[in-house]
Amino acid sequence: MENFFFYFFAALTLIFAFLVIANPFSNNPVTSAMFLVLTIASLAGLFVLLHAYFLAAVQVLVYAGAVMVLFLFVIMLLDLKAEEERHIRAFGLGAGLISVGAIVSIFLISLLKAPLLSNPAPIVHGDTLALGKLLFNQYSLPFEIVSVLLLVAMIGVVLLSKKELK
Amino acid sequence: MSYLSILNLAAPETIMVMTALAVLAADLLFMRELERGTRQLIGAMIGCAGCLAAVAWMLVLPLPEPGSLMQGLFLVDPLIRIVKVALLALTIFTVLISMEADFTQHIGEYFALILFAAIGMMFLVSTEDILMIFISLELTSLSLYILTAFNKRNIKSAEAALKYFLFGGMAAAFTLFGLSLLYGISGSTNLAEIAKAVSGKSVNGLDPLLIAAIVLTVIGFGFKVAAVPFHLWAPDAYEGAPIPSAAFIASGSKVASFFVFAKVMMIGFKGAEGSGSLQAWMPGWVPTLAVVAAASMVLGNLAAIAQSSVRRLLAYSAIAHAGYVLLAVMAVPSPLAPHTSPLGPLVYYVITYGLTTLGAFAVVSNVQQRTGGDRLSDFAGLARRAPLLSFCMLIFMLSLAGIPPLAGFFGKFYVFTAALSSGGKSLGLLWLVILAVAMSAVSLYYYLLVLKQIYIMPSTDQDTPRPLSIGSQAIVFALAALVLILGCAPGLILEPVMSAIKVAGL
User: Fold this and answer.
1) List of residues 6+ apart from A137 with CB closer than 8 A
2) Minimal CA separation from B415 to chain A, in Å
3) Report field, pTM of the whole predicted structure over 0.90
4) A132 within domain boundaries
5) Range of the domain at A148
6) Which stretches within B149-207 are classed as H helix?
7) Does residue A5 share a domain with residue A77?
8) pLDDT digits (tens, 9 = 90+) for B386-415
9) Which pLDDT value is given to residue B253?
10) Do A140 and B112 touch (CB under 8 A)?
11) Residue A33: inside a domain, yes or no?
12) Nearest-10 crossing angle of helices B130-148, A140-161
């Protein structure tokens, strides 16, 4: 049963992610954003299968909810038109196909040859209590660095969106 | 682990964070009304004072008892201290170069972001944990993206930043994918623990998942160090970014990235080296890097010949130099001579390379301020207008080409020796070293092209040029003197590094 759900959600994630960037029916950025919401929702399904319930909830609340609303705000604020068809250069297409092909073949070979793990990963305790304990004890230093990282991001956004006076 | 012990061990980083916040606050609260020159002076002084305080803390106070904070999340040992002091020195020079900058009104933010990038690099070099590596890599990259986009009046700056950002995002995804595979294989984020799990599994050949992890990690770090074929962002970023930002990307970021790249490969993938020797090719990370290094050296040097912009030329030369440094990363000590760690030559090479390229960018900055461009023709006749500056450029270019007695020569010499001695008697990496020497000879051609413009071509502009400020000349001169001194006495860096490596037991 779990296997079935894994393949179900994984396939959904891949299909929706593909539709975000290369939708054959619509070039509208809003459509892409909506498919991104669906991608994130299916990812949350994968997290549930890993027993990481908190992460799944955060994924839906923060990403599918808050962040995507902001995305849509920005898209509508800028009044983005549907993207025009671009012609792809042959060189770019060739280089892209070769590099994607190389990476895909590495993955396929690894997957087909990899032995099944004898001791599959233990069930993760993904509840808030365990997460909070880890975050503020063992991983307090990375936690602090992430706060500096967010400050940098904030400075950058203010700076880049500000109108230059002269 | 309590916050007090973090403060104690990571005191230099804490000082730097407080300095960055102080620069930001001072500019926003007290200096809005002042002239730009004064604001730049005060901001730079606060930044330099903070860096110097952090250096002083590391040099004066004794090491805290050896050991790691939080299972290898944060390490303090003599080698890391040396690299951090070098990073801070490069930061100080970058801050001093940006004092002349006239591309932005947001001075506090500019200095603060340089310091934040430096903080990311300091954390990056002092960890052996893939979680910390990823977070500090992101902190550094994010600060550098913004620094690249800083010149909002110049469309090229925006283009450079967008390319850098998109490539960087892709590379971060690859890094994360590779590191998560490593975590999946080993169940640990610590490099030494990963190596234990990795080496136990290679019964017949490598674990296939490990091969995927190696390739993905190399892609991610290859982007950071601008190695072929992950180099496409570098020429545009070097050309479009404001000069101090480009100089910092080329110097500080390279030092930190190469150090941590080497550590991840040597410690994390220990036991999965394989062999890059032509006679006995074995899968592992050494042959992967060998291909990348060879491509970087060939493409970087050949493409540099065709450039007409000095900044693009420096970018392709940086790609070529990335290839040379990768030789040191590959020089795994053979079981016959376990005490010759290649980290010593690597650290010497990247530090002297950082100083040299920073100096070259400082000269380009001076020329660009007077002529408005960085084409090769803008350098024509520079020797008659600014003899001292031209002489410094001569030193930087010859050092990049690897002419004795400059630092660049000894860097290459030590790196090539380390690569040769790594395979024991079989000289496995000999073909790469031969390629590197041949390509160094090619590189001399385009460095001499720059010098030919400076010394031989007649000057094109007839106006009396604006006199150079004493300050910017002094910075260039100090950097040139450092390159010369470190070349004449390589022991100044190499000896402390070697004894530190012995202490660290690498």
Assistant:
1) B1
2) 31
3) yes
4) yes
5) 125-166
6) 155-186, 191-200
7) yes
8) 888 999 999 999 999 999 889 999 999 999
9) 94
10) no
11) yes
12) 10
